[in-house]
Amino acid sequence: MVSEINAQWGNLQDIGEALSLAFALVFSGDADLLEIVLLSLRVSLTATAVACLIGLPVGALVAISRFRGRSAVLILMNALMGLPPVVVGLLVYLHLSRSGPLGFLGLLYTPTAMIIAQTILIAPIVAALSRQVLEDLHAEYSEQFRSLCLTRMQTVQALLWDARYSLLTVGLAGFGRAVAEVGAVIIVGGNIDHLTRVMTTAIALETSKGDLALALALGIVLLVIALSVNAAVQSVRMTAARQAYV
């Protein structure tokens, strides 16, 4: 019994020491930690931007259009929001590998491959969420749009501008999904040190190696980013509510 208590106390001391070292790494601006965090942000922000460029227009067009098979399109859009990350990673890998149709580009195990995988994962999320936002707004303003004789493109532009605050929350949600991704990026990126190692893949690797200090440090940074994104979403929603009230 005494030996078990001593072992548990030793484990607690080890965890406490690892946590102390983790905070030291964060506050000291460790070069390896900073490199991993910056690469994670670069990959996820780029993927989010590309996904918004694709998803917002698609969501807007589906929101204002009425056509045969629209229900099937909506079902497909909602279903794609739940794409399994490892399946996306595998499909991207097969296309970018040497024997794949895009193998000649040499993109496998590069940050670009990771951006492609994250974009495929979050573009359906952006499209589906923005479609719902813009469809509700279009229903509210449809009579005004008809009276002004706006073209479809002008209608889309007007909706995107008027719903900019709500759509910003959609983009932030996409970024939060991208930065926390591990399954797809580890398949297409390979978790190569100083090249494709991002926060999530580094946490998995360092934990398996027993380097809890670096894993915890990266976990702390990732948690701060997640909380910051949630705070930004709430701030944008409050701003949008005030604008609507005014």
Proportion of residues in β-strands: under 5%
Shape: globular
Roughly how much helix do the residues carry, as a percent range?
over 70%
- CATH T-level fold name: MetI-like fold
Instruction: Kindly report how far apart the N and C termini lie.
Output: 67 Å
Overall number of structural domains:
1
* Nearest-integer average pLDDT: 84
Query: What is the CATH superfamily classification?
Result: MetI-like
CATH class: Mainly Alpha
Secondary structure class reads mainly alpha
**Rg of Cα set:** 22 Å
Describe, in short, the structure shown:
This protein is an all-alpha fold and 246 residues long. The protein has helices spanning 2-28, 31-64, 70-80, 85-96, 111-147, 152-162, 164-179, 183-189, 199-209, 212-245. It has one domain: MetI-like (MetI-like fold, Orthogonal Bundle), CATH 1.10.3720.10.
Describe the structure.
81% of the residues lie in helices and 0% in strands. It is globular, with a radius of gyration of 22 Å. Helix 4 (85-96) packs across helix 5, helix 7 packs antiparallel against helix 10 and helix 9 packs antiparallel against helix 10 (212-245). It has a single domain, classed as MetI-like (MetI-like fold), CATH 1.10.3720. The longest helix has 37 residues, at 111-147. The chain starts with a helix and ends with a helix. The chain is an all-alpha fold and 246 residues long. It has helices at residues 2-28, 31-64, 70-80, 85-96, 111-147, 152-162, 164-179, 183-189, 199-209, 212-245.
